[in-house]
Amino acid sequence: MNDHQTQFVGTWRLLDYSVVNLETGIASPVLGAHAQGHIMYTPEGWVSATLMTPNRAPNSTDRVARYALKEKLQVSGMNDLTEDERQFALPFLLAAFGYIAYCGKFDADATHVHHFISEAFFPAYVGTTATRAYSFEDDRLLLTAEAFGGRDQVLWQRIPPQDPSS
C-alpha cells in the first residue's frame, strides 16, 4: 500500500452528498438533505461504500412473496402484475432509488482515488472504476467527480476508532 492509499484507511461517515449543476452552479442533494452513509478503506486495499436516503418506506420481509414476484417479473415484466403485486413492489422500487452500495479494491495517487468496483447494488457499476479527485482537511475527506453535466461532491468525516456511537 502506498502513502497516498494509507491516508484513506479507516471508516468515514457521510456528511453531505450533492451534485452541482455545471451550467447553473446550483447544488442539489442526491439522496435528500440528510443522506446517511459510510465508506470504509482497509489496510488490505479494499473499499466499501453505502449511502442512503433515511426514513425510506418499509418494505415487506416476506421472502417467499418477494422471490415469487421476482420470478414473475423476470418472466413477464411489469405488464402482467396485479394491482396488489404493484403495491407490494412499490416500496422496493422507492427504496432502490434511495440507495447506493458497492465494494472493491482501491488505489490512490497524489490527486485521485480509484475504486475498482467488483460488487454493487447497481449492476452497471460492476467492473467499472470510479475515479474521484480528493482532498483532506483535518478529519474530513472530499471526493469529487464530473459526469453528466454535474460535479458530484461527497463529503466524509473520519470516525475515530474508539467512537462507539457509530
Assess the beta-strand content as a share of residues. 35-45%
Rounded Rg: 18 Å
Low-confidence stretches: none
Helical segment tally? 3
Structural class: alpha+beta
Shape: elongated
Distance between the termini: 26 Å
Helix share of residues? 10-25%
- Mean pLDDT equals 93
- Biggest sheet layout: 8 strands, antiparallel, barrel
Number of strands: 9
User: What is the H-and-E element order?
Assistant: HEEEEHHEEEEE
| Neighbour order of strands in the largest sheet | 1-3-4-5-6-7-8-9
Would you kindly provide a brief summary of this structure?
With about 170 residues, the chain is an alpha+beta fold.
Note down, in words, how this protein is organized:
This protein is α+β, with helices and mostly antiparallel strands. The chain has three helices and nine strands. A hairpin with a 2-residue loop joins β8 and β9. The protein is elongated. The two termini are 26 Å apart. The mean pLDDT is 93.
Reconstruct the topology from this structure:
Blueprint: H1 3-6, E1 10-21, E2 27-29, E3 36-41, E4 46-52, H2 63-76, H3 83-97, E5 99-108, E6 112-120, E7 129-137, E8 140-147, E9 150-158
Antiparallel strand pairs: 1-2, 1-3, 1-9, 3-4, 4-5, 5-6, 6-7, 7-8, 8-9
Give the tags.
166 residues, alpha+beta, eight-stranded antiparallel beta barrel, 9 strands, elongated
